Structure formats: C-alpha cells, structure tokens
C-alpha cells in the first residue's frame, strides 16, 4: 500500500495552493482525506480500508444513519455532507480532464473547499496515516 508522510503531504498541499497548482492540490487533498476517512472507519470498527474514497464516504453515511455512536461522536452530519459534495465535485472535474471542457477555475474552487476539509480533519484527528 502506498504510504507518504502526512506532514510532507500537508506541506506539499500548502505549496500547491500558494503556487495556484489547484489540480495537484486537489489530488493531494484526496490522498489526505482518504487517509483521514480510513482513520474514522477504523475507529468505528469498520475495515473498509482499501476501498475508493466514495465507497468509504457511503459507508460512513450508512454508519451515521444507523446511529453508530463512534461515527456520530467523531463527525457531524454537515461535515459528512461537505465531504461527500467535495468528492462528487472532484470526481466530475477529474472526468473533464480528458475533454475540451477542462476549466482550471473548477479545480481552484475544489482545492479551496478540500483544504478546508483537510484542515478540519487535521485539527480533529491530527496527522493520521494509513494502517
């Protein structure tokens, strides 16, 4: 499994955003958020590590909706919704890379939203790594 130092990823993310490299920032955010979601799932007793991020987010939604106390204690509903929305926007934007509809401004907005999520997860759970 691919492992990268979470501190280094955070530094690369800040650099990518400050250099307006928003596609790179979005991909770094995806890696960081994926790792943080792994942490939430593991703490909640689920071993969905290795699944794509969208599947993990669906799993967290199901656990939250079934009143899993661990998930409800770690994440608020609005954070889960923001994470899900960010992931959907990121996926749609990445799909445009192969056609002429590529709009760099989309990645700017996605990178900024993703950075807010990364900051939230980092403040809440620290710099966790994959298991």
How would you portray this structure in words?
The chain is globular, with a radius of gyration of 15 Å. 73% of the residues lie in helices and 0% in strands. The chain has 131 residues and is mostly helical. The model has no long low-confidence stretch (mean pLDDT 88).
Report mean pLDDT, rounded to a whole number.
88
Low-confidence stretches: none
Order of helices and strands: HHHHHH
SS summary, helix count: 6
* Biggest sheet details: none
What coarse outline follows from CA principal-axis ratios?
Answer: globular
Gap from first CA to last CA: 9 Å
Indicate the radius of gyration in whole angstroms. 15 Å
Number of E-type strands:
0
What share of the residues lie within helices?
A: over 70%
Structural class: mainly alpha
Proportion in β-strands: under 5%
Question: What's the layout of helices and strands?
Answer:
Layout (H helix, E strand, L loop, with lengths): L5 H13 L3 H22 L9 H13 L3 H6 L2 H19 L8 H22 L6
Give a quick rundown of the structure.
By secondary structure, the chain is an all-alpha fold. The protein is built from 6 helices and no strands.
Task: Supply database-style keywords.
73% helix, 6 helices, mainly alpha
């Amino acid at each position: 499994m691919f492992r990268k130092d979470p501190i280094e990823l955070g530094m690369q993310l800040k650099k990518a955003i400050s250099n307006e490299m928003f596609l790179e920032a979005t991909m770094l955010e995806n890696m960081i958020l994926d790792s943080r979601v792994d942490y939430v799932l593991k703490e909640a007793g689920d071993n969905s590590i290795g699944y794509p991020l969208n599947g993990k987010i669906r799993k967290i939604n199901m656990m939250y909706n079934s009143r899993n106390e661990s998930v409800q204690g770690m994440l608020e509903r609005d954070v889960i919704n923001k994470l899900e929305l960010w992931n959907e926007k990121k996926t749609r934007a990445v799909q445009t890379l192969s056609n002429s509809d590529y709009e760099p401004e989309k990645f700017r907005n996605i990178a900024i939203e993703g950075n807010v999520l990364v900051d939230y997860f980092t403040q809440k759970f620290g710099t966790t790594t994959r298991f």
